[in-house]
């Protein structure tokens, strides 16, 4: 049986680290301290495990997550670092800096981590327990702040337990986080690079290395919330929602065992009607359907509870932001 949040394990305990590695490799959730805030970690290469993060946080939408790796070399296997990204990584990693990179075509990271975007956010944390957790898991770890949706980021193991008790498998207790605010997020896919979220590394420090760093709304504007700064994946095809019937030239996104017949091509998010499996498949299946030679896309109704709310949020955005 998993070790529950009510009984956080000790930082210095080798057994706890080994157990964390096993849980993560098996698709479970482990909270770990970083130098900024505690993260809720899962195997970034396992879409079901990543869906578990959203489920545990109760997030009503799929925001893209930060991938935590051991080194610049490991980051380069996930996304492409241009000259600016490389200069920032060499100066500030390990540390509280997250770089948004173009996803590599052969990136092992689940599409759900990027919430369907062509970019991926990566950082190399400095905290020894975060580093030991990554090493024990032997895979990149997707980790948002380890709090339930709508709560502030946790800076102690007790905060994590208070917020997510019973919804994760293990908490590595490293005491209070040193920095206490989240990492600085920089989009390196644009020129000049854009500061998406202020955080542990000040803008001036970035600019000393790479020159001008832009703010998303231009200087002087009201700070936008991070969620609004992220553009969303939108399919090229028109998307119809709550479809009960489907035309022969449409691509169908189905769910459960009640599948309207006759579509040109059908992808079922979860034949068993499991919302976590559906979340894990959502972006890959949407992209796949969007590439098919069809007139348009149709999606059946998805139950609007738990992860279903986040799936529906995304489908509504895809509908409005699509052609
Ligand atoms: O300090 C931190 O960054 C902590 C620790 C655990 O590492 N993590 C954290 O994660 O704050 P989260 O999920 O709470 O915030 C991630 C931020 C969000 O603002 C998100 O929009 C942005 O990173 N982000 C992630 N992937 C992105 C992408 N591909 N493009 C643009 N923004 C992205
Ligand atoms: Mg957060």
Automatic annotation (TrEMBL):
- Which EC number applies? 2.7.7.87
* Job description of the protein: Required for the formation of a threonylcarbamoyl group on adenosine at position 37 (t(6)A37) in tRNAs that read codons beginning with adenine.
**What UniProt keywords are attached to this protein's entry?**
ATP-binding, Cytoplasm, Nucleotide-binding, Nucleotidyltransferase, Transferase, tRNA processing
The protein's location, in the record's own words, is:
Cytoplasm
List, for all copies, the residue spans of the domain called YrdC-like. Answer: 14-201
**GO CC, one annotated term:** cytoplasm
Q: Where is it chiefly localized?
A: cytoplasm
EC class, as a word, reads: transferase
Q: Name one GO biological process term.
A: regulation of translational fidelity
- Give the UniProt family note: Belongs to the SUA5 family.
Record PANTHER family: SUA5 (PTHR17490), THREONYLCARBAMOYL-AMP SYNTHASE (PTHR17490:SF16)
- Which reaction does this enzyme catalyse, per its entry? L-threonine + hydrogencarbonate + ATP = L-threonylcarbamoyladenylate + diphosphate + H2O
MF terms per GO, please? ATP binding; double-stranded RNA binding; L-threonylcarbamoyladenylate synthase; tRNA binding
- Residues where L-threonine binds: 36, 68, 123, 143, 183
Organism per entry: Limimonas halophila
Recorded protein name is Threonylcarbamoyl-AMP synthase
Q: Where on this chain does ATP bind?
A: 59, 63, 119, 145, 153, 197, 233
> Where in the sequence is the signal peptide annotated?
none
């Amino acid at each position: 049986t998993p070790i529950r949040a009510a009984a956080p394990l000790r930082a210095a305990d080798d057994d706890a680290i080994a157990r964390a590695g096993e849980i993560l490799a098996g698709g479970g959730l482990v909270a770990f301290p970083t130098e900024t805030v505690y993260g809720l970690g899962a195997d970034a290469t396992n879409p079901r495990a990543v869906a578990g993060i959203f489920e545990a946080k109760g997030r009503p939408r799929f925001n893209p997550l930060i991938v935590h790796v051991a080194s610049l070399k490991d980051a380069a296997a996930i996304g492409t670092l241009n000259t600016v990204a490389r200069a920032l990584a060499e100066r500030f990693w390990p540390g509280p800096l997250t770089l948004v990179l173009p996803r590599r075509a052969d990136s092992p990271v689940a599409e759900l981590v990027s919430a369907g975007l062509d970019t991926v956010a990566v950082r190399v944390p400095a905290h020894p327990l975060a580093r030991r957790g990554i090493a024990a898991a032997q895979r990149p770890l997707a980790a948002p702040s380890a709090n339930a949706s709508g709560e502030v980021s946790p800076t102690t193991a007790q905060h994590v337990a208070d917020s997510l008790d019973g919804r994760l498998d293990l908490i590595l207790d490293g005491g209070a986080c040193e920095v206490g605010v989240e990492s600085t997020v920089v989009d390196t896919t644009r020129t000049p690079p854009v500061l998406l979220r202020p955080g542990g590394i000040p803008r001036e420090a970035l600019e000393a290395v790479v020159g001008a760093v832009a703010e998303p709304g231009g200087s002087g504007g009201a700070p936008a919330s991070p969620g609004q700064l992220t553009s969303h994946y939108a399919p090229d095809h028109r998307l119809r929602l709550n479809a009960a019937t489907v035309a022969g030239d449409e691509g169908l996104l189905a769910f459960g065992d009640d599948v309207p017949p006759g579509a040109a091509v059908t992808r079922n998010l979860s034949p068993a009607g499991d919302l976590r499996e559906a979340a894990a498949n959502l972006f890959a299946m949407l992209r796949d359907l969007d590439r098919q030679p069809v007139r348009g896309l149709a999606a059946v109704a998805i139950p609007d509870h738990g992860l279903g709310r986040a799936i529906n949020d995304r489908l509504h955005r895809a509908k409005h932001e699509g052609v």
